[in-house]
Design goal:
Elements (H helix, E strand, L loop, with lengths): L7 E4 L6 E3 L3 H11 L6 H21 L8 H15 L6 H12 L5 E3 L1 H12 L3 E6 L4 H5 L11 E4 H4 L6 H11 L6 E5 L2 H10 L3 E4 L2
Parallel strand pairs: 1-4, 1-6, 4-5, 6-7
Antiparallel strand pairs: 2-3
Helix pairs in contact: 1-2, 1-4, 2-3, 3-4
The chain binds magnesium ion.
Length: 209
């Protein structure tokens, strides 16, 4: 299942090992309703995707591209919420609610195929790491959700200083694990951020989802 040279299996988190439950657009709708805004869930979903792409484009155009920090990650989500709710006056309180919501373990549920792969990696005696574009909230929730809690190492972009697909993201993880690219496998659901980027960094890759 894993390449013979593999020493550590590095998992993307969202969409690979866990997914939001309820879905993102449902959680946004519920938070907005608490503040008196009633938006159609399909409309929220469409606006969320556009807002997310806008923030990715900003990071791609930055110098250097895809550098990040705790402040930048919080600003990303604040801007996305403002875009989704069209700069409504309640946007900052809705954002605060959602920031707390997605930082809670019960906002996430395990994805069985990902959980099976983590188990297989552990059974094979391989090091297991998480490497996510999620921010430092990941450190709080990872110990509380299976299979995230089975990982030996947790890396979050805001703390590494780089987001996927930056090659620096991968190089920093290599240094932290003390491994070379050919000893590492990236398992992920995103064709560009995980699979293409992992390949460019010289890692083995395993698409999932
Ligand atoms: Mg993902």
């Amino acid at each position: 299942m894993f390449p013979a040279a593999a020493q550590a299996i590095v998992f993307d988190v969202v969409g690979t090992l866990v997914e939001p439950a309820p879905a993102v657009a449902e959680a946004y709708r519920a938070a907005a309703l608490r503040h008196g805004i009633d938006h159609d869930v399909a409309d929220i979903d469409r606006r969320f995707r556009a807002a997310w792409r806008r923030q990715e484009a900003l990071d791609a155009a930055a110098v250097p591209p895809f550098a990040t920090s705790g402040g930048r990650e919080r600003e990303r989500w604040r801007a996305i919420v403002a875009d989704v709710f069209d700069a409504a006056p309640q946007r900052d309180t809705i954002f605060d609610d959602l920031w707390v919501h997605f930082g809670r373990p019960d906002a996430w549920r395990p994805i069985p195929a990902g959980r099976d792969l983590v188990r297989a990696a552990r059974d094979a005696g391989l090091t297991v790491a998480l490497a996510s574009n999620f921010d430092e909230r990941l450190f709080e929730i990872a110990p509380l959700i299976e299979p995230l809690s089975w990982a030996d190492h947790v890396f979050a972009s805001s703390e590494l200083g780089w987001r996927k697909p930056a090659v620096e993201f991968f190089r920093t993880v290599e240094r932290r694990l003390g491994r070379s690219p050919t000893e590492l496998v990236l398992v992920g659901d995103d064709p560009e951020l995980d699979i293409a980027a992992g390949r460019r960094a010289g890692w083995h890759v395993l698409p999932i989802g």
